[in-house]
């Protein structure tokens, strides 16, 4: 049986994170009343002319710089022509050759090994509007047009066909998403369509130099969808070839619910887009100093930050990975850390609280850290309360539950519910004496040399104190009493 | 004809401002003239009588109360029907936009509004400015006022006729391939196309974006200089618009000094001009013009621009390519004509366009689509871009030897309705669009059958001031009488 290898290339569209659209002054805000974010330019009224939003171009250049791209100082816009209702001009303003950014790269880690993926280009273009075919569950026998998204800036990134498995594609996209989120040049939210990915997949017998027949997959709406669609498509292509069939160059759609790809159109019906230079916009003339200026605006990127977290804060690889997996989590961590006096003593404990307790809450409640009811200041307070012995780790979890539920201040919760740790020796001695009287069996065992038996007595003291007794003190005092 | 109608634009401004003439009397006279003559020449598609009279009265009150006059206070002006005026119809003489109402003002309209000009009416044109005769208008034929059996030229034929026939002191047109200057010459008025990027294109229904410029019509050069001064300048809404000094061209127009200027001027005449067939009377008139300029001290130089022979093909390829994309937005979905007979989306596109667009428009869309197709792009469109660069280089070289390039405005006099003009008729005008240079046509005389002829000066980029100066000097020595009006 022939062994096949798969060859995968990605085309990623990311909505550029700017307040206004790329060629007019309309807002880019998501989820508004249909056609409320429109004007004479983005609905293509006669006589209107696009005007470039410089911020959009800056975002693309910044992204390019972060991914080691060459920035083309003289690039132009082009018109890509096709008739479709979501594109009011019936052409899209995009870039042909040269794009703003050529030849970049991104390294991913696969099974512990680093692999560099070359990226062909990133260019600037405008998004299309949306056609609506149903209202709620009611299918319409006509279509409605919402142009809120028409003219929102997009950056399109195209990789070389250098990815060889669904996992590599997944890793590439995750890493890309992470970097772009760090740059804040796109929100990369796949659910809101702010990041979209088309995939080119082909397979060839291992050792063969020529590429196999390429299939393009569209309509993928999540990162895991990319992985699943590629995995499905590779298997489908293998089946076709091993059963003696022939593949055709075509575009297929990923049907997420059925978990399969379906043919949309074959190459014979490929469109001729009749590209030509956009006469309404002047060519870019970027200066070195402008590009250098943008270079300076690039923040610390995830890999560097992770290394710094491990080095400066003594975190484990695992915890540092989690914390730097998105910029917002890493920012949350460092902001919280800033509220703590002794950073060295608290950095690990704080990191663990974020990566375990807080993370678990997010998973259960299905909210993201940006909506966290626990502010970084309050989490920092909780950690310092644990460190200075005001509350035990156990009590801290109770306090934390309430902090998450009510967004409240941990000090206030502790005060209101009287959860302050009991460290008063006289009170603890009294409780220990009571407990010893009630635990004759454990006492006997302890005295006969089984020191572990003390655990049961400690447990009883903690129960009596409703968990508030300082466990270390309880231990010390019990030892003292029992040994005299 | 009412004497008030013969007052030239610049004088009219001064007289209204000083209170010597009432704006209301001026507007009334023009309204009466339009009403009396429009049925004969078909210059206007729409007359804004009521609003214009109201505005005129308003300007008069302002002047009486001693308030400062705006630049074009109370002066009526004709606007080509492809320029957006908020709340008004804008048909571009196409059935497609029959019921379209402008949701915004073009930049030039904003500027004219703040100069307190009065938009007296909308002038006829070729459909979407595609044509050179105003015969492709979906609504009206426009006749040459000097002989109504002859065409006015185009595409801004309505504006040319309106000025020529004394229906307005001046008017706006748009010039993509001679669309202001050719009808101006056919009708015996001054037609000016600015340097590309001097006046904002925002709000002009696009024909070929690389070439489109708003231009002016007036009886005399001074009038065009006045009108242009109001409109020039950087506009953030049109990124090809260049930042230039805001000046009043009229201040640079002075008959004596402009005539003296001729002593230090080098005028280039392309030797390629003589390769073309030219109406004898045009040729004679042009030679006379050259001799007059020489007599007043201008140095006449022969220049060599071999690429002139490619101009018609070059223009057609690039213009049609841009047309095919620009007109694509007229799809029947968001505004404009929508077919009632369509069965599905593609059918709707096809039928809406087929039923509402004229023959010339369809022809250009098809040709433009063809030259941009994957199979033809390199040998047609891309080749045209290269030749355009060649032409620009040759012209740039020519300007090292001369200050202006001089030619007849057109190689033919206006023709009768239904007759077609030669392809080369206006190539000396089209060159200005292909190269982004300013050009102005000035009437230079009449044929034996009393049809006007004109000459064309083309300057280097942004030398518009000097262009007005030489045009004004020529006007003073021209055989054409600016005080003569066609009898209607």
Properties at a glance:
heterodimer, A: alpha+beta, Arc Repressor Mutant, subunit A, B: 488 residues, alpha/beta, Amidase signature (AS) enzymes, 11-stranded mixed sheet
Explain what you see.
The complex is a heterodimer of chains A (484) and B (488). Chain A is of the alpha+beta class and 484 residues long. In chain A, 40% of the residues lie in helices and 21% in strands. Chain A folds into three domains: 4-291, no CATH class; 302-417, no CATH class; 425-483, Orthogonal Bundle (Arc Repressor Mutant, subunit A). In chain A, the strands form three sheets. A nine-stranded mixed sheet of chain A has the order 2-5-6-9-1-10-11-12-13. A three-stranded antiparallel sheet of chain A has the order 4-3-14, with no helix packed on it. In chain A, strand 5 and strand 6 form a beta hairpin. In chain A, helix 7 crosses helix 9 (376-387) and helix 12 (425-438) crosses helix 15. The model of chain A has no long low-confidence stretch (mean pLDDT 92). Chain B contains 15 helices and eleven strands. The mean pLDDT of chain B is 97. With 488 residues, chain B is of the alpha/beta class. Chain B starts with 8 loop residues before the first helix and ends in an 11-residue tail after the last helix. Chains A and B meet through strand 14 of A and helix 10 and helix 11 of B.
């Amino acid at each position: 049986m022939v062994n096949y290898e798969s060859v995968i290339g990605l085309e990623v569209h990311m909505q550029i994170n700017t307040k206004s659209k790329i060629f007019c002054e309309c807002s880019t805000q998501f989820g508004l009343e249909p056609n409320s974010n429109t004007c004479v330019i983005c609905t293509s009224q006669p006589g209107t002319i696009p005007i470039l939003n410089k911020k959009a171009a800056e975002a693309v250049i910044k992204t390019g710089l972060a991914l080691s791209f060459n920035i083309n100082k003289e690039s132009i816009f082009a018109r890509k022509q096709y008739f479709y209702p979501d594109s009011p001009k019936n052409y899209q303003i995009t870039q042909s050759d040269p794009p703003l950014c050529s030849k970049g790269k991104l390294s991913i880690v696969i099974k512990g090994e680093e692999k560099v993926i070359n990226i062909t280009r990133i260019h600037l273009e405008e998004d299309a509007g949306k056609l609506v075919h149903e209202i709620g569950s009611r299918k319409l026998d006509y279509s409605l047009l919402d142009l809120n998204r028409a003219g929102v800036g997009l950056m399109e990134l195209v990789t070389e066909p250098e990815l060889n498995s669904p996992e590599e594609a997944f890793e590439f996209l995750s890493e890309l998403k992470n970097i772009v989120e760090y740059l804040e040049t796109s929100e990369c939210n796949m659910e809101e369509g702010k990041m979209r990915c088309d995939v080119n997949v082909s397979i060839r017998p291992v050792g063969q130099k020529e590429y196999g027949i390429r299939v393009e997959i569209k309509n993928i709406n999540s990162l895991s969808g990319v992985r699943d669609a590629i995995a499905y498509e590779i298997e489908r292509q293998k089946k076709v070839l091993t059963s003696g069939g022939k593949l055709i160059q075509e575009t297929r759609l990923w049907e997420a619910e059925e978990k399969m790809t379906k043919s949309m159109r074959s190459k014979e019906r490929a469109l001729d887009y009749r590209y030509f230079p956009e006469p309404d916009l002047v060519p870019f003339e970027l200066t070195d100093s402008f590009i250098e200026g943008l270079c300076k605006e690039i923040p610390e990127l995830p890999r560097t930050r992770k290394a710094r977290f491990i080095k400066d804060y003594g975190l484990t690889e695992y915890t540092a990975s989690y914390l730097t997996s998105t910029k917002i989590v890493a920012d949350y961590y460092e902001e919280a850390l800033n509220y703590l006096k002794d950073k060295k003593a608290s950095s690990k404990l704080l990191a663990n609280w974020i990566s375990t307790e807080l993370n678990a809450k997010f998973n259960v409640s299905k909210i993201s850290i940006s909506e966290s009811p626990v502010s970084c200041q309050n989490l920092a307070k909780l950690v310092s309360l644990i460190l200075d012995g005001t509350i035990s780790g156990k009590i801290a979890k109770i306090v934390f539950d309430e902090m998450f539920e009510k967004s409240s201040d941990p000090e206030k919760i502790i005060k209101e519910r009287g959860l302050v740790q009991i460290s008063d020796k006289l009170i603890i001695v009294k409780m220990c004496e009571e407990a010893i009287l009630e635990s004759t069996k454990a006492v006997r065992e302890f005295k006969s040399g089984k020191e572990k038996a003390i655990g049961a007595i400690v447990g009883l003291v903690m129960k009596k104190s409703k968990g508030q007794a300082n466990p270390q003190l309880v231990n010390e005092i019990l030892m003292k009493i029992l040994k005299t | 004809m009412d004497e008030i109608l013969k007052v030239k634009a610049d004088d009219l401004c001064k007289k209204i401002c000083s209170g010597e003439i009432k704006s209301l009397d001026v507007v009334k006279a023009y309204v009466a003239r339009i009403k009396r003559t429009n049925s004969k020449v078909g210059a206007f598609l729409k007359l804004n009588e009521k609003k214009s009279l109201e505005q005129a009265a308003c300007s008069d009150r302002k002047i009486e109360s001693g308030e400062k006059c705006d630049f074009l206070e109370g002066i009526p002006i004709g606007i080509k029907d492809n320029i957006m005026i908020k709340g008004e119809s804008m048909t571009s003489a196409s059935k497609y936009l029959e019921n379209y109402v402008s949701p915004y003002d073009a930049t030039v309209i904003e500027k004219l509004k703040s100069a307190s000009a009065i938009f007296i009416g909308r002038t006829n044109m070729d459909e979407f400015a595609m044509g050179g005769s105003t015969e492709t208008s979906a609504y009206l034929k426009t006749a040459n006022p000097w002989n109504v059996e002859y065409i006015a030229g185009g595409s801004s034929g309505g504006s040319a006729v309106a000025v020529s026939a004394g229906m307005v002191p001046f008017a706006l047109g748009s010039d993509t391939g001679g669309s202001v200057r050719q009808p101006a010459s056919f009708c015996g008025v001054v037609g000016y196309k600015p340097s590309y990027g001097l006046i904002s294109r925002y709000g002009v229904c696009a024909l070929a974006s690389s070439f489109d410029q708003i231009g002016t019509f007036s009886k005399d050069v001074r009038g065009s200089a006045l009108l242009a001064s109001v409109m020039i300048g950087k506009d953030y809404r049109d990124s090809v618009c260049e930042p230039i000094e805001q000046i009043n061209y009229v201040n640079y127009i002075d008959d004596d000094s402009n005539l003296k200027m001729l002593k230090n001027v080098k005028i280039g005449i392309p030797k390629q001009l003589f390769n073309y067939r030219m109406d004898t009377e045009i040729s004679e008139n042009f030679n006379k013009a050259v001799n007059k300029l020489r007599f007043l001290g201008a140095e006449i130089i022969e220049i060599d621009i071999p690429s002139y022979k490619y101009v018609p093909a070059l223009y057609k390829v690039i213009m049609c390519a841009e047309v095919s994309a620009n007109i694509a937005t007229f799809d029947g979905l968001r505004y404009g004509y929508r077919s009632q007979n369509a069965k599905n989306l593609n059918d709707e596109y096809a039928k809406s366009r087929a039923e509402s667009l004229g023959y010339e428009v369809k022809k250009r869309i098809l040709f433009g689509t063809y030259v941009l197709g994957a199979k033809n792009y390199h040998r047609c469109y891309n080749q045209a871009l290269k030749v355009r660069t060649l032409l620009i280089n040759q012209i740039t070289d020519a300007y090292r030897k001369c200050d202006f390039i001089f030619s007849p405005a057109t190689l033919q006099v206006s023709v009768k309705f239904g007759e077609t003009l030669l392809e080369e008729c206006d190539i000396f005008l089209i060159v200005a669009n292909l190269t982004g240079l300013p050009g102005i046509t000035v009437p230079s005389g009449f044929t034996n059958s009393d049809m006007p002829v004109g000459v064309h000066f083309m300057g280097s980029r942004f030398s518009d001031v000097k262009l007005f100066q030489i045009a004004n000097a020529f006007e003073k020595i021209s055989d054409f009488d600016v005080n003569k009006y066609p009898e209607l």
